Amino acid sequence: MPSISIVTVVFNGAATIRSCIGSVRAQSVSAEHIVVDGGSTDGTLEVINGSQSAVASVIPGPDRGIYDAMNKGILAATGNVVGILNADDFYAHEEVLAKVGEVFSDEAVDSCYGDLVYVDASDTSRVFRSWRAGSYDVSRFYRGWMPPHPTFFVRRAVYEKHGLFNLSLGSSADYELMLRFLLRHRITTRYLPETLVKMRVGGTSNTSLANRLRANRMDRVAWRVNGLRPRPWTTLLKPLSKIPQYWRR
Question: How far is 8 from 23, CA to CA, in rounded Å?
Fold first, then answer.
């Protein structure tokens, strides 16, 4: 089974970072957990330092934002496979990384992804949205599809070959990276049809209409920088495709 590195980016996340670290530590297979702190001032570092036995390394800030921090973590990773787990998120069960590892035991697989649910920040048993990604088909990108980024695991060699997050894309940097990997370079991927990650409600790109419109503009840029041409409706369908998630619970 290939070795796995998990990168967690945090800034003033004292309220949730312990849960995040605990979910990685509780996995039935061990993983290198790298935490990148953006210069927290709320006690986050104290929580991380109290969990040092579960964290392989802590990279201090400041940084140029969340995707710069993710890049730092990816560059520091030594595992064959890299996953990103946000400080507000946690794995759905203790076998997530074991199942991911099994997928990557097939050397022909470059990446994999699964489903994600959005949960209440206080009562994580309460589900607000369920993101069922579905099987991969390259044509789905043209209909506004993308896999949930926190469930997206990639071989480190892919990052080394095709690059890291593009910091000029703002909150669409994860979308651009998946377009680049899956659509432009056609890396292989496999769908794990189950919930892998639980995400506490919130998120930078969806906090206001202005942010959503800004994200939509950057989504269009993500296609352009890769020399790809979306359909006229592609970036409009991307947010609309999320509507069914609210009644899948």
Answer: 12
The DSSP H or E segment spanning 158 is helix 156-162
Is pTM beyond 0.85? Reply is yes
Domain boundaries, the chain: 4-247
Cα separation, 89 vs 233, in Å, equals 31
| Site of tokens 């599809």 | 145
CATH superfamily name and code, 4-247: Spore Coat Polysaccharide Biosynthesis Protein SpsA; Chain A (3.90.550.10)
Within the chain, how many helices (H) and strands (E) appear?
8, 9
pLDDT (average), residues 110-132: 94
Q: For the segment 28-69, what is each residue's pLDDT rounded down to a tens digit?
A: 999 999 999 999 999 999 999 887 778 999 999 888 999 999
